[in-house]
Design goal:
The protein is of the alpha+beta class. The protein has a domain of 208 residues: Rossmann fold (3-Layer(aba) Sandwich). 32% of the residues lie in helices and 16% in strands. The protein contains 20 helices and 23 strands. The chain has a seven-stranded mixed sheet, with helices on both faces. A hairpin with a 4-residue loop joins β22 and β23. It is globular, with a radius of gyration of 25 Å.
Length: 608
């Protein structure tokens, strides 16, 4: 037997969920949906193991998929990796039973095993023995795909684990099975005939969806034809060099109905954009790392928005920041200066082209800043910057430098670790984090600016924002990198008022408090940006409802959650490559795509 170990990233690049875009099917969208619905309705879950099926507690699980027989394992794995990092081990040539135990050795790092096979594969005594053995040692889910034409010679009742039976050979069945395992699709079917002596017809457990489903627009009554207008707007942006590429995702009612990549990583066209590419989030960091950390600490009672900066940060007590309330900081009404140009303040003695004990902080390739540069220089400059507009809305990144310091003071944990532990790992966001060049394949990381003034290099995996870079890459206002599917899970959780994947992250009132308008002088919430009530400004788009919250990012990103439409809209691009083009603003690319989606949703609602 040949064993092949595939990483989730490799699989996603090969085949990243063909269900998400109807245009990728050879069949019509309506026919694709009919086929999907038929497969879903026929699937049956045998055994009742709610603690394991669908899979929950992702932060505590290390998952591997073992494919004994079957031809659609690539689609199964690529779909599974939408929800969590899943290692794939496949057996492609059978030799003797010892090979299965070689495979077993490869499973040692994993505590949760998904075994897929066909009915024919289940008739092989070696596979039977292997499944029984692994299910006794580890938490296991067995997935049987394809019709059972004769009663199984294997007594499924001997297994003390959930068994998902999907009686279809169609390729779409593999993706649906993976979604059911992770709770993107609930299982409702009943067994129509006996699978064997110990498995009577009529049996079947029922589960509910707990995570995003990846489907076609027709399931929601949305016209795939209407959504093709997005292709035109995207191509116009690429043709006019607003951005070399982009990824667009839209989910409604907990179902991703549009997910598409356009263009290339750069204008050289050496690498086509992929659905799972990782982008520099820029200021989207503010609401995806810092703000949720603040929300969590407010819920715990360890952070109070009416407390002052000086209460949490000792170094601020002799500065103008001392008596400013955190509520003001989160609303950008603290009076901070809007921008400090730190690169202009750097002397030749502050950096080196090689790392050393004196220059340990990597800012980019061949650029290392001196030890404690942030603590000794940048932070004092911010702390002692003039407070001149307190009470007025002045957008300033200093706000989130301050909130990062508050979070780290309370938790005694760096922001990146705290956010990863409390949000990214539990949500299955395995393509999200700070300092991506240490974590991810750089072929997945979208290049940002070809920086010829400060760092003298093309930035790949290094945060674009200069201040965040000089701080070491982990900052409250910028530095986070992520993919569209990861972000979709996080923002669906917020749309669900703090609940996702069978786990509660926030109480509903906490989400409401932070995302609604809390300012008397601006449209802002606590950390979150919101729709502008002056509809003539068309921000974030012409048709966005008044109950829309989110944020934009300098690198060409945006995320907007429209509560009235139950919509999560994600747009990721690198408009700063190779230099800082403003064409994306002139063309209104992000808002126009948002409104194409809005119109398609509104039209589907009118049909009903």
């Amino acid at each position: 037997m040949k064993l092949k170990l595939w990483t989730g990233a490799t699989l996603l690049i090969c085949l990243f969920n063909i269900l998400s875009v109807a245009a990728q099917h050879s069949k019509s969208p309506a026919a694709s949906y009919t086929e999907m619905r038929s497969v879903e309705q026929a699937a049956v879950l045998l055994g009742h193991y709610p603690e394991l099926f669908p899979i929950k507690d992702l932060s505590r699980r290390s998952i591997a998929a073992v494919h004994l027989t079957g031809s659609h394992w690539t689609l199964f794995d690529s779909t599974a990796n939408l929800y969590a990092p899943v290692a794939s081990l496949t057996s492609q040539v059978y030799a003797d039973s010892a090979d299965l135990y070689n495979l077993e050795d490869d499973l040692q790092p994993y505590n949760t095993i998904i075994v897929t096979t066909t009915a024919d594969g289940l008739s092989d005594y070696r596979n039977q023995r292997y499944i029984l053995d692994v299910s006794r040692r580890k938490q296991t889910i067995l997935v049987i795909m394809g019709p059972v034409r004769h009663p199984l010679k294997f007594a499924l009742g001997r297994l003390k684990c959930p068994v998902l039976y999907v009686p279809s050979n169609a390729s779409v069945a593999a993706g649906i099975a993976a979604q059911m395992v992770f709770g993107g699709i609930g299982v409702k079917g009943k067994l129509k005939k006996s699978l064997g002596a110990d498995m009577e017809a009529g049996k079947g457990s029922v589960t509910s969806a707990i995570r995003l489903k990846y489907t076609v627009p027709e399931e929601l009554g949305i016209s795939a034809v209407a959504l093709k207008e997005i292709d035109k707007v995207a191509q116009e942006a690429i043709d006019k060099r607003a951005t070399p590429g982009m990824v667009v995702l839209a989910a409604r009612n907990g179902k991703v109905f549009f997910h598409k990549a356009y263009g290339y990583h750069t204008y050289s066209k050496n690498a086509a954009e992929q659905l799972n590419d990782i982008f520099d989030m820029a200021s989207v960091t503010k609401i995806t790392a810092t703000t949720p950390s603040v929300m969590k600490l407010v819920e715990k009672g360890t952070l109070k928005l009416d407390s002052t900066i000086g209460h949490y940060i000792a170094r601020a007590r002799k500065t103008g920041m001392n008596n400013i309330h955190l509520r003001e900081v989160m609303l950008h009404q603290a009076g901070f200066v809007p921008f400090i140009n730190f690169p202009k303040m750097i002397s030749e003695n502050d950096y080196s082209r090689d790392s050393s004990g004196m220059f340990p902080t990597k800012v980019a390739d061949h650029y290392f800043i001196r030890k404690d540069f942030f603590k000794d220089f940048m932070w004092p400059v911010m702390l002692y910057s003039p407070i001149v507009t307190r009470g007025k809305y002045v957008y300033s990144d200093i706000s989130m430098y301050v909130m990062q310091a508050v979070i780290e003071s309370i938790t005694d944990t760096s922001l990146d670790v705290y956010a990863d532990r409390n949000f990214y790992k539990p949500l299955g966001m395995h393509s999200t984090g700070y300092l991506p060049y240490y974590k991810f394949d750089d072929k997945r990381i979208i290049p940002t600016e070809d920086d010829q003034t400060f760092r003298k290099t093309l930035l790949v995996g290094y945060v674009h924002d200069e201040g965040a870079a000089l701080k070491g890459g982990v900052a409250g206002h910028a530095g986070l990198f992520s993919s569209a599917t990861d972000l979709a899970a996080y923002y669906q959780m917020l749309l669900n008022k703090g609940y996702y994947g069978g786990q509660r992250y926030f109480q509903p009132q906490t989400v409401t408090t932070f995302t609604k308008n809390e300012s008397k002088v601006s449209r802002r919430g606590y950390g979150f940006d919101r729709v502008d009530p002056d509809r003539s400004k068309e921000y974030p788009s012409k048709l966005a409802s008044l109950n829309t919250f989110g944020h934009t990012g300098y690198t060409g990103t945006c995320i907007w959650v429209d509560e009235d439409r139950d919509l999560v809209y994600i747009f990721l691009s690198n408009r700063v490559n190779p230099t800082r083009s403003t064409e994306i603003y002139t063309l209104k690319t992000r808002s126009r795509i948002q409104d194409i989606i809005n119109r398609a949703i509104d039209a589907s609602t009118k049909k009903k």
